[in-house]
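the three lines:
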Amino acid sequence: MSERLRQHDNVVIQSLAQIGNCGLFLLALLRAVPRSLRYMRETVRQLWFLGAMSLTIIMVCGLFVGMVLMLQLYHVLSIFGGTSASGMVVALSVYRELGPVVTALLFAGRAGTSITAEIGLMRATDQIDAMEMMAVDPMAYVATPRFLAGLVAMPLLCCVFCAMAIFGGHLVGVTWLGIDNGTFWANMTSVVEVRTDIVNGVLFKSLAFGAVVSLIAVFQGFTTPPTSEGVAYATTRTVVASSIAILALDFVLTAFLM
Amino acid sequence: MSQQRSSYAVGTGLFIVLGFAALAYLATQTSSVANVHQGDSYVVDTHFTNVGQLKERAPVKIAGVRVGQVQSIDLTPGQDVADVKLSIDKRYDHIPLDSVATIYTSGLLGDQYVGIDYGSSKQLLAANGTLARTKSSEPLEEMLGKFFGAGGVADDIGGTYTVTANFSNVGTLSPGAPVKMAGVPIGSVQSVVADPLKLNAKVVMAIDKRFNQIPDDSAAAVFTSGLIGTQYVSIQPGGSPDPLKNGDEMILTQSAMQLEDLIGKFLVNGSSSDNKGAGNGGK
Amino acid sequence: MTDSVRATPDDSTLVRIRGLTTVLNGKTLFDRMDVDIPRGKVTAIMGPSGTGKTTLLKHITGQMRADAGTIVVNGQNVPELPREQLYKLREGIGYLFQNSALLTDFDVFENVAFPLRQHTRLPEVLIRNLVLLKLQAVGLRGAARLLPSELSGGMARRVALARAIVFDPMLILYDEPFVGLDPVALNQVLKLIRTLNHTLGITSVLVAHELEAVKQVADHVLLIANGKVVAQGDPRTIASDGSPWTRQFFGGEADGPVPFQYPAEDLGRALGFAGAGK
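prediction for all of em together
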């Protein structure tokens, strides 16, 4: 079908077709979930590769985001004598926006690309066909475990990212810039709400982003032409499409949740 | 291989535990658990003549400790008091009936909350009961005004009775600014024009038709939302039996206070040389 | 016709294809083709590049749908099979891919054990023994812990073969098993195919271009061209049956029924000489 459309060379129609195909792919993916329960081990293995292996980059980035945010806020807020509020602003901005969005962008770059490249290469080297021939459904064995792993890994990674950001903010604010430790925590705990900030902000958003990123990554891997050039393009497309989708979805979710 | 597999499982397990530990950390260390607890609670009715910046879900505190939250803020048409429902944790059900609900501000710029100060009555407040004794939010201007002895004194400009009001100073009030009664918006400012003869500002207000029971001797005042917020017109109901009608003018008005003037007054308080100090506040 | 197609499992024909028609990208690959693959024999499918030999294998396994026709494998019509039964059937078919298609995540042992782990709940000891036996059969028991990236092409193909036979299939499809092998590796693979066929009685279908190798191993040769079976018979005699197809293909002549030119518009017109075509 995309073959026929390619001749039109129409970007809009092609993008629409991509989105449509992606939606159909999602349905196929969800239909394969019951069958993929047999491959629980594979899901766990993917959770290791996509989640646990991304921990380092997530933790380091979280730490620096928290540190730089605190540094910037401190300088702005010191104009108004409101530096004691900086801990709370770090917490709110990280929980509501930066945490889920930056984690998702990093996840797209770290895990999304590896999913796309891996599946693309598996197709290029006939591994997917080989699985079909060994009566193992690639949808249930390859696609769904990665999708589910991404879905589970993202909220967990986002929690770690946020905790590290708070830690980084504390490091700079309290240890370095001399904000009172008690004030830092008290101001934070007085405004952060579990339901709106942590459940809606951290968990819900990151779950949605995790679903979008892993869907795009798996979809690109499965639909790319099985050549080395196709895999390279697909990897790029995963990052671009994921980033756009994350930021657009973030706006929509924020509008609905806040 | 089975060792390799189990090392994945162990590593993944560690990852999941770490993720949940981080979540627990966020939920317990960086937010107050009291904010979550929405267990059994009961509702108490209160009425305030002015809710100021009080918001739904604002905390309700006893002795400074959070015991519940504001469930809803409504203004019943035809009444000039805001109806505020408080949802209070079941554990705190020994509140005396004559306790006082007050709207406090956390610090100078902070959010507002409802504080309950215990009375001495033996009778306890029941669920869905009403706390009759309340103290409203006091706009900063009023507090400062009282402080300087200008409170309650309105500008008497004179003139006819229409739904316009003349102020000697509207500050930064602009068309579209809200008109509030008891802190709840009931209309908006339509136009602000300078009167070339009287040398003051004529403010035309559009008020919601539902609020047609406003006594005709009510006062209009220009207030500021918080210390650095936007300005709005506040209507303080009078006691006249006749309501305001279309085209009426409100005679009792209180102009915007300029923060600079107030602070200036404060600084030269007691110095008799500065007459200007009595400036805009009250003549 | 339908009655004759529904063969019983003890029929001497394992795969019976009738009226197979496939159109791929506007090109007719198969045109009402009939193919019989005898049980317990080694059948070689030969033909010019691009005639759809690999596609034919994929039709047999149900990986590609044909536009028309019946493909009966062991009494079951592949195009009509629902997913579960198709997967059941595939467990009885081994497929050797051109580039081996080993799973790069796993080592040699796990690659061979993969089908067992997915479809059975055998105890680990039994899996280990089965896999080591199959690896012994292809001579790579010592390489059990190597990763696919550490194998040579010939070794990878032997591992893939071990994986394909781990379930003791009734049918093995070899897609170009001799391509890119040095003479030693080629002879090793040849020997394996022959051994598997003779000792286990596995029906084998192989797609190949190497006539010499085919002569050593195949009992039966099918020559496919232009969407039809143009010649078939014993590999030692087929080259001399006198038809123009066999003469060109086995004689390796550059021109003949197989055109040198890919179908195109007239050269004169393509070069811009208006009216030069006619």
